[in-house]
Amino acid sequence: MTVTPLSYQSGFGNEFATEALPGALPQGRNSPQRAPYDLYPELISGTAFTAPRTVNRRSWLYRCRPSVVAGRYRAYARPWWRSGAGAGAGGPVAPEPLRWHPFPIPDEPLDFIDGLRTLVANGDVEMQTGMAAHVYLANRSMQGRALVNADGEMLLVPQQGRLFITTELGVLDVKPGEIVVVPRGIVFKVDLPDGPSRGYVCENYGAFFRLPELGPIGSNGLANARDFQTPVAAYERGEVSYELVKKFGGALWSAPMSHSPFNVVAWHGNLAPYKYDTANFMTIGSISHDHPDPSIFTVLTSPSDTPGTANCDFVIFPPRWLVAEDTFRPPWYHRNLMSEFMGLVYGQYDAKPEGFKPGGASLHNCMVPHGPDTEAFEKASQAELQPHKLEHTLAFMFESRWRFVPTDYALTGGALDTNYAECWQGLAQRFKEI
Ligand SMILES: O=C(O)Cc1cc(O)ccc1O
Ligand SMILES: [Fe+2]
């Protein structure tokens, strides 16, 4: 790679333009008869050509060889990476809340691809709807291989260990607390500079993630566009052989390449990977009374065809001040239409201070009742309501309009907390008719 130290372009969905060699980006046209440095122009579109301008995404890549130069694909069986509502064993999904202890990172050599385990999924990759939530449990960098996902965009939430991500469009260094999104169809590889690493992945089969509308909040707030960081062009020199692993139609495939797929010398456009530091999230909350809906914590949303009812919302619960008066401050008890998958990057989550651990997960599907555990209820209903800062904590939620189906790995892989529902059984009747 030619770029050290890493630099980024700022903004969300901009018309970015970047070249690793001076003059490599054609000016005034996209596909000149001969491009500078005899590079091949190549288009990647992330939306239909005719998608409305505001949601149209495409980029022009100027590369040493076009992507079509690759060997034949063979099936690459990886049973842990599952797709869509058929991801489970096939039986009905019990209407139970589920929780998982932290997923242990195995000792056997596993890179990001082989260490990926699907926990829950919904929708259908063929219909471009729904999503999967995975964990990755990896202990070595992807050596001589690259990954490309035709089924969806990949939102990575590192929980332990930094990720050094090489993409066709440049490189990103992502630490826990930050997230990274690689669009559908962009080739990437994951190196692990910190050794054994764990994190969560949202594989979004639906509409690409975008910033939520701000409504009465106004023109600033939540995740601000300028805090998103997209890499500058960087390319690998020389004839290095690669294995290209492709997710396509719910299955994995592998093809040999006699050169690096990371051979893009310049690019421009608005379809690009980006990272975001959740520390920059401008959190909004109640400064009078009551616990607001968690939609105020939406970082990114993938809409569905029904307005306001997301294919997937990516929501964070970051450090913040709690100041609401005469208010039960943790989440209320609730049953929701939307299905909720949660993970914890670090610290404690206020509704489940003990049982929900960093590196673990929970699932509350459509209309499955849940809320603070007994201990959290006792504490919060008696606490003296001073301004209080929730510190050193970062939980998140992938929330979807479609019910999640847990996989075999999720149910029988050893991390399931079989006593989860016990955490509410101490909620005795307190009602007294006077
Ligand atoms: O269930 C959860 O812990 C997530 C959540 C948090 C909150 O503050 C309100 C609703 C909600 O689903
Ligand atoms: Fe909830």
TrEMBL record:
Residues in Homogentisate 1,2-dioxygenase N-terminal domain copies: 8-277
GO molecular function, one term: homogentisate 1,2-dioxygenase activity
Active site: H291
UniProt entry tagged with the keyword Transport: no
Binding locations of homogentisate: Y349, H370
Enzyme Commission number, as recorded: 1.13.11.5
Occurrences of domain Homogentisate 1,2-dioxygenase C-terminal (ranges): 280-431
Pathway(s) it belongs to: Amino-acid degradation; L-phenylalanine degradation; acetoacetate and fumarate from L-phenylalanine: step 4/6
Top EC category: oxidoreductase
Protein's GO biological process: L-phenylalanine catabolic process; L-tyrosine catabolic process
Reaction catalysed by this enzyme: homogentisate + O2 = 4-maleylacetoacetate + H(+)
UniProt keyword list: Dioxygenase, Iron, Metal-binding, Oxidoreductase, Phenylalanine catabolism, Tyrosine catabolism
GO cellular component: cytoplasm
InterPro entries the UniProt entry points to: HgmA_C, HgmA_N, Homogentis_dOase, Homogentis_dOase_bac, RmlC-like_jellyroll, RmlC_Cupin_sf
Keyword hit for Metal-binding: yes
Cofactor(s) for this UniProt protein: Fe cation
Positions that bind Fe cation: H334, E340, H370, H388
Assembly: Hexamer; dimer of trimers.
Function text: Involved in the catabolism of homogentisate (2,5-dihydroxyphenylacetate or 2,5-OH-PhAc), a central intermediate in the degradation of phenylalanine and tyrosine. Catalyzes the oxidative ring cleavage of the aromatic ring of homogentisate to yield maleylacetoacetate.
Similarity annotation: Belongs to the homogentisate dioxygenase family.
HAMAP family for this protein: Homogentis_dioxygen
Protein name: Homogentisate 1,2-dioxygenase
Organism for this UniProt entry: Caldimonas brevitalea
Taxonomic path: Bacteria, Pseudomonadati, Pseudomonadota, Betaproteobacteria, Burkholderiales
